[in-house]
């Protein structure tokens, strides 16, 4: 898990710290933090990341808008995207699923649940990548 690069997008520095702390409990160590969806996209386009964790409600560009942009970009569309938000109402969850979110986590959350979801998403992404390489 030490080679996994995770980008965390949340406009609240305290929440980015909570997410990092929880992920460190799961053995993750490589994080990039951004405070809005616009910076998320700029940073994604300038580097290599294995997982996106994003809040929904952010200034400049929401997590949903960022998700739509990620899924529309051929270079980024296969990066697993975990939406973490306090707004876990059914309609928002359905909207995020339709936009291509890989998983959803409601705040407040238990660190163990975050790590279970992150590890599952990474395992699925690595499996899909291996299958594509085998078909090529």
Task: Explain what you see.
This protein is of the alpha/beta class and 136 residues long. Helices cover 49% and strands 18% of the residues. It is built from five helices and five strands. It has a five-stranded parallel sheet with strand order 2-1-3-4-5, with helices on both faces. Helix 1 (13-25) links the parallel strand 1 (5-9) and strand 2 (30-34). Helix 1 (13-25) packs across helix 5 and helix 2 (37-45) packs parallel to helix 3 (63-72). The chain is globular.
CATH class: Alpha Beta
* End-to-end Cα distance: 27 Å
Low-pLDDT residue intervals, each spanning 5 or more residues:
none
What would you call the structural class? alpha/beta
Average predicted local confidence, pLDDT: 93
CATH architecture: 3-Layer(aba) Sandwich
Oligomeric state, counting identical vs distinct chains: single chain
CATH topology: Rossmann fold
**Portion in strands:** 15-25%
Look at the structure and name the CATH superfamily. Answer: Response regulator
Which percent range fits the helix content? Answer: 40-55%
Largest sheet: 5 strands, parallel
Cα-based radius of gyration, to the nearest Å = 14 Å
How many domain regions?
A: 1
Order of helices and strands: EHEHEHEHEH
């Amino acid at each position: 898990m030490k080679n996994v690069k995770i980008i965390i997008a949340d406009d609240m520095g305290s929440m980015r710290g909570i997410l990092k702390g929880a992920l460190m409990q799961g053995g993750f160590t490589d994080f990039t933090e951004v405070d809005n969806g616009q910076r998320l996209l700029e940073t994604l386009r300038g580097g290599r990341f294995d997982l996106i964790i994003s809040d929904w409600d952010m200034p400049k560009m929401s997590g949903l808008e960022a998700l739509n942009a990620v899924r529309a970009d051929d270079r980024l569309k296969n990066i697993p995207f975990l939406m973490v938000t306090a707004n876990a109402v059914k309609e928002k969850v359905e909207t995020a699923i339709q936009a291509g979110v890989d998983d959803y986590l409601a705040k407040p959350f238990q660190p163990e649940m975050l790590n279970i979801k992150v590890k599952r998403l990474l395992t699925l992404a690595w499996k899909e990548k291996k299958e594509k390489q085998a078909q090529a």
